[in-house]
Amino acid sequence: MNNFIDHKIIELGHWVVGFFDEYPLLKLVVQILLYTLPLMLSFMGAFAFSTWLERKGLARIQNRPGPNRVGIFGLLQPMADGIKMLLKEDIVPEESDKLFHLLAPVMLMVPAMIAIGFLPVGDGLNALPLDSAILFFFAIGSMNTIAVFMAGWSSRNKYSLLGGMRAVAQMISYEIPLVLSAVTVIMIAGSLNGQVIVASQQISGWVGSGDVVKEFFGQILGWHIFKPWGFAGFIFFFVAALAEANRSPFDLPEADSEIIAGHLTEYSGFKYAIFFIAEYISAFAIAGIAVTLFLGGWSGPILSGLPWFVIKLFSLFAVMIWIRGTLPRLRVDQLMGYAWKFLMPLAILNIFVAGFYYFAEQQWGTWVALIGGWIFGFGALQLAAKGLSRLNKSPLLKGKRVYQYAE
Question: How many separate domains does the chain show?
């Protein structure tokens, strides 16, 4: 049965809350805990597993074993790392601003945990079910910029300050194409509510029709990624998301070969661990919103709901691991130029492509809109990408490359 797991979770929550009907204040506290605690514990568990998964994945890409000593297949390595971080000494520079040095990791962690509350992880499963949840998600996520710069500035270290400045420039620059890519989905769905956006990616005439084949494909073919503007928007969104989450190849604020560890240089012990946790939680949150906007959210064939959301979330995270293991880090000028000179113009053009698709669908039907959108809309994006690539190419790199080898 579709959404069976989600409905059982909701029923279990109502059953637990029912015990406290005679105590309104206590009932409110229990409701808050039931909304937030399972989500926080789940994502903390996902963080622990993902650190093991990433280390194993990178090890396989680089032809080495990875964690294999603590527990079966090294599965207890995250626990060992956590104990190590708890026992390590917290060293604070003497000249640092100790208050802000302490508050920076907390300010980074809190918005990341709040952001995951806006994700529709299942049918009716929302910790913060707001009609403008997508707007609040991006608003809360932008607070990360302040926390990272606070860490760099309060450390009283030139490398930390440079890392913080890099982070501010990078995160502000890539927030623009990130939000512009999401605008196309909001235009088509006509809502800022995550549950409504997920529902808009189901073919309503097929879902619930009773036909097994239509039921199956009705949960898949409506995903926005299968539409020309949605496919392009997903690419733009995912690239900008990598930069927002400081993932490779956009991890310049922590470039160890240039500025030691950037804004993390003067952090150690559990404070460093909090930064590490917040970075992973942010990566999960932004991957979760990508799943919601472009990949149908929790919808899927056979057993729709929470299992599909988890599968899609970890699939995107696996792509992040793959990218980290294969692509080199960009230079700072390449990073900034790519955001302003390439990604942002294409994201703006994609809004017009989405508008063309919408009105074509209203006038001539879905199939005409799909064919016209892929031919004209996606074709225009490809031509614009080639033109921008040629326009932004350095004069030193024009023409055929000539390679010289030592004699």
Answer: 1
